[in-house]
Design a protein that fits this description.
The protein is built from five helices and no strands. By secondary structure, the protein is an all-alpha fold. Helix 2 packs antiparallel against helix 3. 16% of the residues are buried.
């Protein structure tokens, strides 16, 4: 009978390709696209956390929630220019802080409903960022032609 001990190695090239694809996307992305990538990364981390929570994988859940918190704190929140953003910037700042607090709660209490709440909040903001993409690109094209 054939041994399947090397089966896992078939997935490594795919993972490496995906990592290279993400890496090149990050290095060539404009600031707006980078924010979109942060939202996608946070959503993926929360999806993983939810799966781990359902499976009883406590370490995996904790790692995934920590990753989502890091993306929110070190990416989304850190990229805000509250002074330039005015009231909207202040509200986003407060909302990101709220999300981090809720994720800490979700991790502590193993609360899947709270994970879903944060995913929905992030999804709403992500959707708004996707919708303004054409305007951002058009504005960049006009500025580039000056």
């Amino acid at each position: 009978m054939a041994s399947f001990s090397g089966f896992g190695t078939f997935r490594k090239p795919t993972a490496a390709y995906q990592q290279i694809g993400l890496s090149s996307d990050v290095t060539t992305a404009d600031p707006h696209r980078l924010i979109l990538l942060l939202f996608e990364g946070a959503d993926a981390a929360l999806n993983t956390a939810s799966f781990c929570m359902k499976e009883g994988n406590i370490p995996g859940k904790g790692q995934a929630i920590s990753k989502a918190i890091s993306i929110i704190n070190d990416g989304l929140l850190a990229s805000l220019d509250v002074d330039a953003g005015g009231e909207l910037g202040e509200r986003l700042y407060s909302l990101y802080e709220y999300m981090v607090d809720r994720l800490l709660w979700a991790n502590l209490k193993n609360d899947e409903a709270t994970l879903k709440e944060v995913r929905n909040l992030l999804g709403t903001i992500h959707s708004a960022w996707r919708e303004i993409r054409p305007q951002v690109m058009a504005m960049n094209n006009v500025e580039g032609k000056k």
